[in-house]
Amino acid sequence: MTVRTEKNGSVWTIIHARAEARNAMDPESGKALYDAFVAFDADDSASVAVFWGEGGAFCAGWDLKHAASLQGGERLAELEFSADEPGHVAGPMGPSRLELSKPVIAAIEGPAVAGGMELAMWADMRVMGESAYMGVYCRRWGVPLIDGGTVRLPRLVGEGRAMDLILTGRQVMADECLRIGLCEYVVEDGGARGKAEELAAAISRFPQMCMRADRASARAQHGLAERAALHQEFTWSAPMVGAEGVKGAARFAAGKGRGGDFGDI
To answer: 3-class SS at 130?
Structure first.
């Protein structure tokens, strides 16, 4: 089994375990990861997922040994999709086209390159070990970015920096990733999973309907005019005032959170 899920309350850690291939993605692993994240999104007991590659590598990209066995576009033809297609859609790297309703935190040790970098960018947040790195390594082999790399990278770091990384295919170490906005946390090697699970546990303590509405609005505002984005924000998030906000305000009025103590909210 190349994928397994470990559960700690409402935090699910979804693990890609193909260490002999540095967690490069083959069709079996891609399908298993896709299924695991769909199950996470559908389970009412789950709030936040951590995405981790076992064995010292997050993901070395698409398995080029498998790719070399394909004839033309035979595999990719199975993965064509319409932008208007409803429901969950699989990508070549598995979950890369999923639009989940809950957050995912990527815990990155070692390489997250080519398609692995695209999977890392698919997540909501990224925690990297200090020796971890990203890079469009597929530039060397004539393999394009088809799992969101050309879409998500400019949104994260800006077009100029994205072009640098896309065109040169150079290695981007964790400290540079942090500096340019390609990751949010850098920790000691071996600590990425623990930090990601700590963040996930903290997020899971918040009222979830409000958090998910804010997350959805932030992700969906790309490409909208400001007024349209503001209207969308209000439409999605205003109902949360009645659903969760009034109860939260009552807890505060009763003394919770006073003096900046949020340990018992």
So the answer is: coil
